[in-house]
């Protein structure tokens, strides 16, 4: 009987050694990966660039930050704590602006893409509002049209962060997210008129009317 027990122990030990040294390594090697591409899509990248220009040296802009990295449940009861933690575990902030020195979150920003909200997204927004309100973190909602209005972004953030004084308008290309520059038409029917053009010309030929004014009431 003792002999059988010894044999079983040795068998189990051998199995564990083989499993740990070989099988796990093989399964890891079989799991190959590839890059998913940019962390942000074109619209998000454009907004990110505009937001960085609006903040300047007065803060650090981060994108798609997990809520659990910013807020934590205040409940002392373990069950309530785990329930609250589970609610925020897989949710993120679109953008946060942190203090440049301490990296403490100063403002959270939710970007409205203009797409109709689903039930899941509505519930997510309710969670964001509730979490920020209870944690005393300002939550700013802004739309894609503000992407091209650095001055307006500064005004939205000014109540929460010590921003620099508004400067001349800065715009970013709606096609490739690069900064735009102001030029003056030298010929044609618009000769002498100013317009915005992508700084990546001739690789990107996007242009925009200098006098385009976005709605200031929303």
Automatic annotation (TrEMBL):
<dbReference type="InterPro" id="IPR024402">
    <property type="entry name" value="DUF2726"/>
</dbReference>
<protein>
    <submittedName>
        <fullName>DUF2726 domain-containing protein</fullName>
    </submittedName>
</protein>
<keyword id="KW-0812">Transmembrane</keyword>
<feature type="domain" description="DUF2726">
    <location>
        <begin position="38"/>
        <end position="157"/>
    </location>
</feature>
<keyword id="KW-0472">Membrane</keyword>
<dbReference type="Pfam" id="PF10881">
    <property type="entry name" value="DUF2726"/>
</dbReference>
<dbReference type="InterPro" id="IPR014538">
    <property type="entry name" value="UCP028063_topo_Znf"/>
</dbReference>
<keyword id="KW-1133">Transmembrane helix</keyword>
<feature type="transmembrane region" description="Helical">
    <location>
        <begin position="6"/>
        <end position="23"/>
    </location>
</feature>
């Amino acid at each position: 009987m003792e002999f059988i027990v010894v044999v079983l122990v040795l068998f189990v030990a051998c199995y564990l050694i083989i499993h740990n040294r070989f099988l796990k390594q093989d399964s890891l090697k079989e799991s190959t990966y590839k890059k998913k591409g940019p962390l942000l899509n074109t619209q998000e990248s454009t907004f990110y660039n505009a937001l960085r220009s609006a903040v300047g040296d007065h803060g650090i802009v981060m994108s798609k930050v997990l809520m659990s990295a910013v807020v934590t449940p205040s409940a002392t009861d373990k069950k309530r704590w785990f329930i609250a933690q589970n609610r925020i575990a897989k949710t993120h902030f679109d953008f946060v602006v942190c203090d440049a020195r301490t990296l403490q979150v100063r403002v959270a920003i939710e970007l409205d893409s203009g797409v109709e909200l689903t039930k899941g997204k509505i519930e997510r927004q309710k969670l964001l509002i509730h979490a920020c309100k209870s944690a005393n973190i300002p939550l700013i909602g802004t739309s894609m049209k503000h992407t091209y209005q650095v001055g307006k972004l500064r005004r939205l953030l000014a109540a929460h962060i010590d921003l620099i004084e508004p400067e001349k308008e800065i715009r970013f290309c709606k096609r490739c997210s690069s900064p735009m520059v102001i030029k003056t038409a030298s010929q044609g029917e618009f000769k002498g008129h100013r317009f915005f053009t992508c700084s990546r010309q001739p690789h990107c030929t996007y242009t925009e009317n200098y006098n385009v004014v976005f709605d200031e009431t929303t």
